[in-house]
UniProtKB/TrEMBL annotation:
Highest taxon in the source lineage: Bacteria
Transmembrane regions: none
Gene3D superfamilies: PK beta-barrel domain-like (2.40.33.20)
Gene Ontology terms, MF aspect: catalytic activity; molybdenum ion binding; pyridoxal phosphate binding
InterPro entries cross-referenced by the UniProt entry: MoCF_Sase_C, MOCOS_middle, Pyrv_Knase-like_insert_dom_sf
Pfam family, one: MOSC_N
Domain MOSC, first and last residues per copy: 128-275
PANTHER family with a match to the protein in the record: MITOCHONDRIAL AMIDOXIME REDUCING COMPONENT 1, MOLYBDOPTERIN COFACTOR SULFURASE MOSC
Protein name per Swiss-Prot or TrEMBL: MOSC domain-containing protein
Alphabetical list of SUPFAM superfamilies matching this protein: MOSC N-terminal domain-like, PK beta-barrel domain-like
Amino acid sequence: MNEKASPTAVGRVVALHVHPVKSLGGIAVADGRLELCGLEDDRRWMVTDPDGGFLTQRQVARMALVTVARGAGGGLVLALAGHGAQAVVRPPADGARRTVRVWADSVPAVDAGDAAAAWLTGALGRPCRLVYLHDVAARPADPAFAPPGATVGFADGFAVLVASRESLAALNRDLPSPVPMDRFRPNLVLEGAAPWAEDRWRLLAVGEALLRLVKPCSRCVVTTIDQQTAERPDPREPLATLARTRRAWGGVMFGQNAVVARPGRVAVGDAVRVLEEGPSNLVPA
């Protein structure tokens, strides 16, 4: 890997977020390990319909209200006001296998059992199952953007999502009402660079890890959902403003998708250094 002789310091990590279950509540952590498939424990679990199709806040906004805590032995504790809490044991690798779907990908997963399914069905108001991904190499990242060998868990497309506080502040200046960072559900939140500087970054050193930024992240209706209430205070925003200010090939963009070029531990407070840069990757639509 061709690292610059004099890497450029561009800021520091100010927040790390793990979302153990795709589209349920996240966990702020002080540190964690970046593996090839992403930040440890991030999006290794997923809620599906009975046929194995993935469910997100796009279909069930109420998913935002289900909190997730790490449990014993790699398990979880799910909770929702009015529904109590449910401990979930991580299923064994040789447990009941199901093929589940994430967009166009079919992925082998292990079912987390009837108790977890029954609790989620009651909490979300529709039949569903919970599955866990043991085989982290089973789902390659999009080869149109990611290098060979890059993998992803149950995240939409790539292992890591990087966002900038300065870019959020710039977006909020254009919005009728500001939105918090949790609307975008990033893994790493950085501070210290100019707004939208991340469009030009290609390779970052963060803690022990290296991250390769591969494409801007196209945003969907989830960004209109208040993550604390599951309501949509303005169903147009922030998408309408992003459509004016950040429209590009593939949609409207906020944050950068990344793959892990070198695994390692990262922590809040770590310096962020740019090892490679290029022209803006915000390609006009």
